[in-house]
Amino acid sequence: MNIKVAILGANGQLGTDLTEVLSQTPGIETIPLTHQDIEITDFASVKTVLTHVQPHVILNTVAFHDVPRCEQEVDRAYQVNALGALYVARVAEALHAWNIYFSTDYVFSGTKKAPYVEDDLPHPLNVYGTTKLAGEMHTLTYCQRGIVLRVSGIYGRVPSRVKGTNFVYTMLQKARNEKVLRVVADEWLTPTWTYAIAQQVATFLRDLTPGIFHCTCQGACSWYTFAQAIFDLMGKPVQVIPISAQDYPSGVRRPPYSVLANQHFAQLGIDQMPHWYEALENFLQILKET
Ligand SMILES: NC(=O)c1ccc[n+]([C@@H]2O[C@H](COP(=O)([O-])OP(=O)(O)OC[C@H]3O[C@@H](n4cnc5c(N)ncnc54)[C@H](OP(=O)(O)O)[C@@H]3O)[C@@H](O)[C@H]2O)c1
Questions:
Q1: Strand residue runs (E) in 134-229
Q2: What are the per-10-residue average pLDDT scores of the chain (290 residues)?
Q3: Which residue has the least CA distance to atom 14 on ligand 1?
Q4: What angle do CA 107, 31, 86 make, to 5 degrees?
């Protein structure tokens, strides 16, 4: 029997690659659901749509994750990221379905000097991180088969719907007109390709376990190093100048170090995430060929 997997936010950056990879995975039937099909902030919509689908697994990629806008539009951030997760969790529980909520490195404060593991205490610094942490709690509290999967610095073929872009596309866009770019060098993360996440999810679906899982590429870098790597790999003659986050005020507090270690996947022996540079190289190669 096929596993029926409902993908919420199926036309988003991550949802697109999840849909593509899982549709090609033997034994899995995907049900892609977009905002047109389901309104996550409306319990009746969530209940009606998911009860009709009867999924074995729900992948909830839906989010309002424009970090500065979350500070301004707190209600919307809470409704989509937190209440939406609660509604999905309740319906998943009633359907005895597994429920995977995609979360973020921004649940951490960034004061640690080594990669965060799943058991580290979250301490978000902004509205986005706080509402995502609430979404995590709802997912784990209201659904026995609840799973939180934290990702970081994601980029994919389809840009983020909420932001209309991602870091890779923004850098390449800027490189068209500017030959010198200033990029923050004192915020550390792990850039992660959505296609690699989707492949890791395909493996995880073979034997799901409840709990929190980090799912990022290996290694770490600053935004500055990430930008340099993009220009080097694309052969763009751009001079990248390192600046401090303090020189680029955005009105939002962000963790200076939000690198995650995939400790729980490693303990299960299924951490297959590639190094961030290798993943970026593969992504840009595909971009060059298309
Ligand atoms: N981007 C990052 O760097 C990053 C970093 C860490 C974690 N994450 C997490 O990764 C996940 C996926 O991010 P992404 O970049 O793939 O997001 P995305 O491209 O912006 O996709 C979000 C999806 O959610 C849908 N959606 C938004 N509001 C909705 C609502 N009220 N009801 C139903 N659907 C709604 C959007 O549809 P419409 O556009 O049609 O509304 C879209 O399909 C999110 O959980 C995010 O928090 C992202």
A1: 146-151, 154-155, 180-184, 188-189, 192-193, 211-214, 221-222
A2: 95 98 97 98 98 98 96 97 98 98 97 96 97 98 98 96 94 93 94 98 97 98 97 94 86 93 98 98 94
A3: 13
A4: 35
pTM greater than the 0.90 cutoff: yes
Give the span between the Cα atoms of 134 and 168, in whole angstroms: 29
Q: What is the CATH number of domain 3-157+192-218+260-275?
A: 3.40.50.720
The residues pairing with 211 across neighbouring beta strands, listed in sequence order, are 147
Ligand 1 pocket mutation pick from 21, 65, 138 by most atoms within 8 angstroms of CB:
65
CA distance 256 to 274: 23
Domain residue extents for the chain = 3-157+192-218+260-275
* CA atoms lying within 13 Å on the CB side of residue 223: 23
Q: Residue 263: CB within 6 Å of ligand 1?
A: no
